[in-house]
Amino acid sequence: MSKPLVGIIMGSQSDLRIMKEAAEVLDELAVSYELTVISAHRTPLRMVEYATEARNRGIQVIVAGAGGAAHLPGMVASLTSLPVIGVPVKSSNSVDGWDSILSILQMPAGVPVATVALDGARNAGILAAQIIGATDKALGERLDSFKKSLQTKVEAAAKSIEAN
Ligand code: RP5
């Protein structure tokens, strides 16, 4: 695929089971991406390097997933003016994922992270595509078809239920 437009990063390899859903939907929408592991706590300098160089490398949106004390999305957002979409990953059962949600969602004024639902990596991928599709006409048309396919599925389900 061509030069990556979306950077999908995650705090640990253990997040991949969730974060691969962002990659899968970007494949469906034919949007180029890269996928890697960057830990805010275990590899802080790698995080700084990635966030500060992403724009110059042609990345347009960053999708960052993490769990627990999920500081990766917020810290990356503090280091770049690219849009950052945060995916709270449910990494432990102790507090039902609220640790991940709140540590990504509750950003201070001036440093937004667009936070999706718990384990909502698929929506993060779609949102990343929509941000790029705002100015990329061909991608915008693919997204219109994608939305239409959601509508068609619901209408088919409604017909099937009504027929019984
Ligand atoms: C976070 O801690 C990661 O994003 C992951 O969700 C969680 C657990 O990481 P591992 O201990 O599995 O590496 O940093």
TrEMBL record:
Biological or metabolic pathway of the protein: Purine metabolism; IMP biosynthesis via de novo pathway; 5-amino-1-(5-phospho-D-ribosyl)imidazole-4-carboxylate from 5-amino-1-(5-phospho-D-ribosyl)imidazole (N5-CAIR route): step 2/2
A GO term for molecular function: 5-(carboxyamino)imidazole ribonucleotide mutase activity
EC number(s) from the headed UniProt entry: 5.4.99.18
Entry keywords, A to Z: Isomerase, Lyase, Purine biosynthesis
Function recorded in the entry: Catalyzes the conversion of N5-carboxyaminoimidazole ribonucleotide (N5-CAIR) to 4-carboxy-5-aminoimidazole ribonucleotide (CAIR).
Family to which this protein belongs: Belongs to the AIR carboxylase family. Class I subfamily.
Entry protein name: N5-carboxyaminoimidazole ribonucleotide mutase
Annotated source species: Ohtaekwangia kribbensis
